[in-house]
Amino acid sequence: MMFGVHRGGGVSGVSNRRCGLGAGYEQGKQRKRATALLAAVVAVIALAWPTAAGAGVSIPLVSDHASDLMPAIPGSDCLKGSTGCRRVAAIAEIGGWMYVGGVIDKVIDRSTGKTISGFHNLFRFNPSTGAVDTSFKPQFYKSSQTDYTDSAVSGLAGNSTTVYVAGAFTQFAPGPGGAGTSRKGVAALTTSGSLTSFNAHVCQGGGSCLVNNLNLVGGSLWLAGNFSHVAGAAQNALAFVSPTSGALQGSQVAVSGQVNTAVPTLIEQAAVNPQHTQAVIIGNFTTVGGASHHDVAVLDVSGGAATVDTWNDPTNLNASNHTNCGSQNVWARGVDWDPTGTFFDIAATGGGGFDAFAAHGALCDAFSRFKSDGNPNTPFPLVVNVTGFDSLFTVVDTGNIAYTGGHNKSLNHAVYINGKKVSATQENHYGIGAIDVNPADPGYGKAISTWNNTTSTGRGAGWKASLTTSAGLWMGGDASTVNGDTSIRRLAFFPVS
Fold first, then answer.
1. 265 forms bridges with which residues in the sheet?
2. Kindly report the CA angle at 202 between 197 and 207, in degrees rounded to 5?
């Protein structure tokens, strides 16, 4: 549980004023007193909601004002053409710490006002106080420990003893300047930051070494990404390995083919429902487990081994490939389940026009929601909310609300319920947004107008990581500024309000 977090909603009469990096620190005593007053209240509120498992956490609408206590990541914005831009690509709560991965070399600890150097694409902090762990500086890199952009951390998972890290790296060192050890695509650390003997030998045998995403499912660690070999064996895009050794484990699921022939077969993300009965994989493929599934497939995992579900989208997700949506690597970029494990949401990129769903039946540049049972009598998709030509990269579902992150300027450009267009007014929701997914609400399928309906939130190259915990919503990307607060840089926490 995350106690004592500043909750920007004015709890117990405390103002939700957010301090900047300069004036805020001069008011440090006031802020500490406010945080202390809030701690007991937050503990009571947080106990009313489930502890996070990384997905499927039921919480009410969060504040759209981000906390001023959480760390900030300095650096240039990616859209300004800098090759050295910094960004957050993965967030996970593991063993009481919040871990953040991406392209990161410095972190501003706003609990002290100090800028800490020496990180290489991963750091952790106390989610209750925002204090950064200055002793935890594992180095994930390729060519050298001074080059950050070629070795981004893109996936995180863990348990009480082990932290699993995925990305584009090929080397690990325990700290700045330390001797390197080969770890390609994925590594396992103790909670103190030491390397374990786990080694999946990704790309041993050839091909790319990139692992995008990790999941602990039952007794296996799932690797999803752009690779063709694991432990010397041919295994494309998806692999189930031992969490202890990294060796291939149990029955594997074959993934092959390319909807977009300009890029390899790959999985952008695998998302497992909270009940661990089903999973969704999204990426660039045409066949899963020997059956035709383009771009999206559902796996059944309740029996221990993963098998391919018969679910397939009757509206033809084939229409959402690069031909109709533009020359993107993959069309679907983010996926998450609702807390019941009944519905899943997809955040998508791809262009294809201001309303590709109307023009091609394509779901690019849109949020879409599906029911996982694949009943042919159930219209698919249940909800489509089109941004109007700008990408969504991440989504997190809290039951009645789905939060989106991306490079979008707006939501509600067009809204469809069960395949039929409904009346909607386009609204400004820069980078982040909240969509009502409760069918009983009059605003079902539409953006919540009061949540970040502003142009003063940065969108950069996109918000690309999201996580809900019992205390609120976390978002990460490459943008600065949330609701006019310029002290929020690349990592934002929105408390339950």
1. none
2. 160
